[in-house]
Amino acid sequence: MKTIKLAVIGAGARGFLSYMPYVQRFPREAEVVAVAEPNNERRTRFAEALHLGPEQLYSSWEELLSQPKLCDAVLICTQDQMHYQPTIAALRAGYHVLLEKPMSNNPMECVDMERIAREEGRLLSICHVSRYTPFWQKMKQITHDGLIGDVISIQHNENVGYLHYAHSFVRGNWRNDALSSPMILAKSCHDMDLIRWIVDADCTKVSSFGSLGHFHIDNAPAGSTDRCTDGCEVEHTCPYSALRYYMQDTELNPFAALIADPPSETNRMKAILEGPYGKCVYRTDNNVVDHQTVNMEFENGATVIFSMCGFTRDMNRIVQIMGTKGEVRGDLLSGRIDLFEFSSGTQSVIQTLTSNSGHQGGDDGIMRQFLSDLRNGQYIDTLTSAEASLESHLMAFAAEESRRKEGAVVDMKLFRQSLSSTVLSESR
Fold it and tell me: Which spans of this chain does the record mark as coiled coil (predicted)?
């Protein structure tokens, strides 16, 4: 087995905690030869875990990619708005790329990245890790094999989880679309991708509604303060108390480990006192929606209703797919799938494997597949290639455009043509 050599750009939660455990468990499959990370503590932690020397450490992606070609592929795990430039530079320098989702917060950059990867003959794979989980692969198999006939309609719910939403999208890195991406892209591009994959047809029309309904100053309780530590009179009863949430045992609450590096109690308290994670959830600079629905119509006649909500007790995805010969319902968290076939009138229960590893095993799955694709020279038509991912990204961008235009229907054919024409004219 050829050992694939990798470089990592961005050694945060995704670049280090999500993908490096696979490399550490299977050293014959992959070897990390360099890392680029501006944060000194993260860079040092990464180097120690992956046994890198000082000469293999870089403070920026520009510094790393200015060197003679170091390896086979690059993992790019930076923030949303920092994907385009290192991806283009890596592709032009001859690297294959595994890129964290979303591709970009700019639709024209997404189109351009896919075009350049195709022109360079490089594998650009997007981290739509859900496709690699046993649950979603079984759902795809059921629909692909025709067990419920032709797909007619889908109802897909994304339960974000009230504490996850507050952590990531009220206080965290994805709280403001000027700093990252709209919610439909930052969080729900997984769902757009799964819907497109299962329907297996191009989307023709999109409309969307949603807003930031709760987490703003107008809903701040009487007696609340700018920070949870400023003498807030309702802190002890608030479900979003930073003191109670982030000072929990990090083994029980993995989000608590993400607010400080390293996540000692002293460092976490300092982060609560001084950083964004100690802010009152009603007094931050957040602007992304806390609930959104998207209506979609596809070329094959299928219709889809997608709903994302931040006010749920758990983090889960629940789906119901209705076909001409049957119906299938699934609950990702439990791994349970219920299949009902009209002809026999029978119901069967399929229990898929669940996993405590990242994204129900999806993080491991995409690393395994990416390395396999590189060893086998499979650079096009891969499961989560940029070509496969681009369409679902455009669906998300169209949904956000519709939402901002009070639910106006977006014609996807015209939307695609407008983007492609702009990109081509700018590339000349």
Answer: none
Question: CA 66, CA 95: separation in Å to the nearest integer?
Answer: 12
* pLDDT per residue as tens digits for the range 36-72: 999 999 999 999 999 999 999 999 999 999 999 999 9
334 and 242 assigned to the same domain: no
Q: Round to whole Å and give the CA distance between 229 and 273.
A: 7
Residues 162 and 201 in one domain: yes
Residue where a domain stops, chosen among 260, 278, 296: 278
Q: Are 150 and 351 in contact (CB under 8 A)?
A: no
178 plus 228 within the same structural domain: no
Structure tokens at 57: 């450490």
Q: Which domain, by its residues, includes 347?
A: 131-214+288-355+388-411
Strand (E) or helix (H) holding 185: helix 183-186
**Top-confidence residue, 417 or 123:** 123
pLDDT tens profile 219-275: 999 999 999 999 999 999 999 999 999 999 999 999 999 999 889 999 999 999 999
Pair of tokens at residue 103: 């591709």
Residue 403 belongs to a domain: yes
Tens digits of residue pLDDT in 323-358? 999 999 999 999 999 999 999 999 999 999 887 777
Total residues found in the chain within this entry: 428
Considering the domain architecture, whether residues 229 and 243 belong to the same structural domain is answered as yes
Identify the residue whose tokens are 């897909």: 156
User: What is the enclosing helix (H) or strand (E) of 186?
Assistant: helix 183-186
* Secondary structure (3-state) at 72: coil
**Phi and psi of 275, rounded to 5°?**
-100, -175
- Beta partners for 30? 4
Residue 198, CA atoms < 13 Å, CB-side half-sphere: 34
28: domain CATH number?
A: 3.40.50.720
Indicate the number of domains in the chain.
3
